[in-house]
Specification:
It contains 15 helices and 5 strands. It has 371 residues and is mainly alpha-helical. It folds into 3 domains: 150 residues, no CATH class; 43 residues; 130 residues, Roll (CBS-domain). The two termini are 49 Å apart. This is Conserved uncharacterized protein.
């Protein structure tokens, strides 16, 4: 009995962690793979005829990756095309140069894995491609080096083409962009100077020395969303209505830029909502907008109407929106403010970056006192 329970616990580790893809994602994977394999089979048959093998079984495993986990580094176009082509060349070479088929098969897969790591085209089904070149029988042996082109490269290209069309038609980002070069001198936004950065992730993954089947950009996005969720749990009671500015100064669209500038200076504010005489919210005008317009038309400020300067695409939020919903837009999109619109579509307040900072500071003070 002492051995049974440890064995049971150990056996339970064989069972993988539950997956979380939605039903939509699972259906897309199944339908996409079925369409892609059928199309690849038919097109390859049409192009290559029946004189030679036109379709190989490892394409089924490739389809699982391209449609089941299209975000995986193992499923990217270069991974399938480069990995399968490399594996086929190595497999043919081992089959021709090594007399023992068992030894040739093992060496072909080992060399394929080693070179795929070096060439950044790791693709698990490529191991089966290498074995197919060794154990595929007379039909494959007869092809010789041509096996790498027909059917391997043709199959891989067609399958990748279908994956590109299908995944993007369903708005699944494919292929995934490569990580940003660490030497890039693009200015770092404020939100990127704190928390976990891409460089942090890369350094930790390099230190671990093991392959992790997730794109670094996706991992960073997941961590960012987890941080937001944790922040929402911590500051869950803080809503826009709690700290928004309720006393608003507005301006009509036919007012001049000079009038708008006077209002901004008089009330020491940076933003004016633009509303019609009927009270309809039309847009916003900021001090930056007025300065930019003054540089273009220094002599027309007294007559130039606000309607030609205001921004009609402006950030907005609801009174019950949580504060963390504004933190990232303010930092990542360089927003100055967000207009607070109630469910009836009425302008009820204004939230600035200073308001958010003050609200978070006050909340932290209150939590500190309570502790």
């Amino acid at each position: 009995m002492k051995l049974i329970f440890p064995l049971i616990r150990w056996a339970r580790t064989f069972w993988p962690q539950a997956t979380v893809p939605s039903l939509k994602e699972r259906l897309a994977a199944a339908i996409g793979a079925a369409i892609a394999l059928t199309a690849t089979f038919q097109l390859s048959h049409l192009m290559l005829g029946e004189a030679n093998p036109w379709f190989i079984a490892p394409m089924g495993a490739s389809a699982v990756l391209l449609f089941g986990v299209p975000a995986s580094p193992l499923a990217q176009p270069w991974s399938i095309i480069g990995g399968n082509l490399l594996a086929s060349v190595i497999g043919v070479a081992c089959a021709q140069w090594i007399g023992h088929s068992g030894l040739a098969g093992g060496i072909s897969v080992g060399l394929t894995i080693a070179l795929m790591f070096s060439l950044r085209c790791l693709h698990p089904p490529s191991g089966a491609v290498a074995l197919t070149a060794v154990f595929g029988g007379p039909a494959i042996s007869h092809l010789g080096w041509a096996f790498a082109i027909v059917p391997v490269l043709v199959n891989s290209l067609l399958l990748t083409a279908v994956a590109l069309v299908f995944n993007n038609a369903l708005r699944r980002r494919y292929p995934h962009a490569a990580p940003v070069n660490a030497a890039d001198k693009t200015p770092v936004r404020p939100a990127q100077r704190i928390g976990v950065s891409r460089e942090d992730l890369h350094a930790v993954l390099a230190a671990r020395g093991e392959y992790v089947d997730i794109d670094e950009g996706d991992l960073q996005a997941i961590l960012s969303q987890a941080e937001q969720r944790a922040h929402r749990r911590h500051f869950g009671g803080l809503r826009c209505a709690d700290f928004m500015t309720r006393e608003l100064w507005t301006i009509e669209p036919d007012a001049s830029c000079h009038e708008a500038g006077s209002l901004l200076r008089q009330h020491r504010i940076d933003v004016l909502p633009v509303v019609s005489k009927a009270g309809e919210l039309l847009g916003i005008v900021t001090s930056r907008d007025l300065l930019a317009d003054a540089e273009r038309r220094p002599d027309d400020l007294a007559t130039h109407p606000i309607s030609q300067v205001m921004c009609t695409a402006f950030p907005r939020c609801a009174p019950d929106d949580a504060v963390e919903q504004l933190v990232l837009p303010f930092t990542l999109q360089s927003m100055q403010c967000s207009l607070v619109i109630d469910p009836a579509g009425k302008l009820v307040g204004l939230v600035t970056a200073s308001d958010v900072l003050a609200a978070l500071y006050q909340e932290q003070l209150e939590k500190g006192r309570a502790a």
